[in-house]
Amino acid sequence: MSNKNSVITLEGVPAVGKSTVAKLLEQDHGYCRVPEVNELFPNRPSPEPAHWYALKQLERSHIATQNEYSLLDGDIFQVIWLSWIYPDRGFIEYQTAADLFIENIDLLRLPSLFVYLYVNDDTRYQRELERETRRGHDHQQFIKKYQRYKSMRGPQQSLFKAINKQYPGWVLFLDNHDSHSSVKKIAQRRHNAIMPSPKEFVVWLRGWLSRHNPINP
Questions:
Q1: Which of 118, 107, 115 is nearest to 6 (CA)?
Q2: Cβ contact 100:51 at 8 Å
C-alpha cells in the first residue's frame, strides 16, 4: 500500500465476489471496510425521507476518509447510476440524485481508486446459487434474483470504462476468478490517477448518463 488516506471502491454485479475481496483486504492488508447503506444503517426511518438513502451514501464517503486505508463495499454513486440502468424499479431518478450530491458537495469525498470486479456468467451463476442456498432461499427465489441483475453488467461496465477513459487509471478492472489474486493486484496498485474535483465528477457523470442509453450505451 503506497498512498496515505487510500480509499478504494469495490463494484460489480452481485455474486462477483466483492464481499470476499473486501474480507481479504481487511484481514491481510489492514483496510477498514465501509459496508453498503442497508448494512451500515439498518434502522431506516419510517416513513423514510425521499433523499435519505442518497444522503447516507454521502455519509459513507465521509466515513471512508476517517481511516488511513478504507474500502467502500459498493459504489456511493450507485444511487445515481442504478436508476439509469433500471428506470422502472422505483429508484430515485439519476438527475435528482446527482443534483442532491451537487447541493451537498462539501460532504462528498471521492475514492482514490475504483475496482471493478467481474466474472463469467457460469461462475456468477454458481456463486449466486451457493449464496442463496446458504441463506435458505429456494431455487425460484435464486432464479428471480439472478435474472433481476443479469442485465446490469453491460451498462455498468460501459459506465466504468467511460470513467476510466475520462480519468485514466482511476478504475482497475479485475476478472475475479481468484479472489486472492485480485487482492494482491489491488494491494500492489499505485493510486496515481489524475482525479477530478467532486463537483466536476458528478457533473460529468450526470452528463454521460444523459447522453447514453443503458440498453446500448
A1: 115
A2: yes
- Whether residue 102 contacts residue 203, with contact meaning beta carbons closer than 8 Å, is answered with yes
Residue corresponding to grid cell 439509469: 84
What are the C-alpha distances in Å from 216 to residues 47, 127, 152, 156, 202? 37, 27, 12, 11, 22
The string of pLDDT tens digits covering residues 45-88 is 999 998 999 999 999 999 999 999 999 999 999 999 999 999 99
Furthest CA-CA distance within the chain? 47
Residues comprising the chain, all counted: 217
Could you tell me if 212 and 186 are in contact, meaning their C-beta atoms sit under 8 angstroms apart?
no
Sheet holding 69-73, edge to edge: 32-34, 69-73, 6-11, 113-118, 171-175
Task: Read off the DSSP letter of residue 92.
Answer: P
pTM here? 0.90
What are the backbone dihedrals phi and psi of residue 201, each rounded to the nearest 5 degrees, phi first? -70, -45
SS (H, E, C) 148-207: HHHCCHHHHHHHHHHHHHHCCCCEEEEECCCHHHHHHHHHHCCCCCCCCCHHHHHHHHHH
Amino acid, single-letter form, for residue 190: R
DSSP state at residue 90: -
CA 185 to chain centre: 18
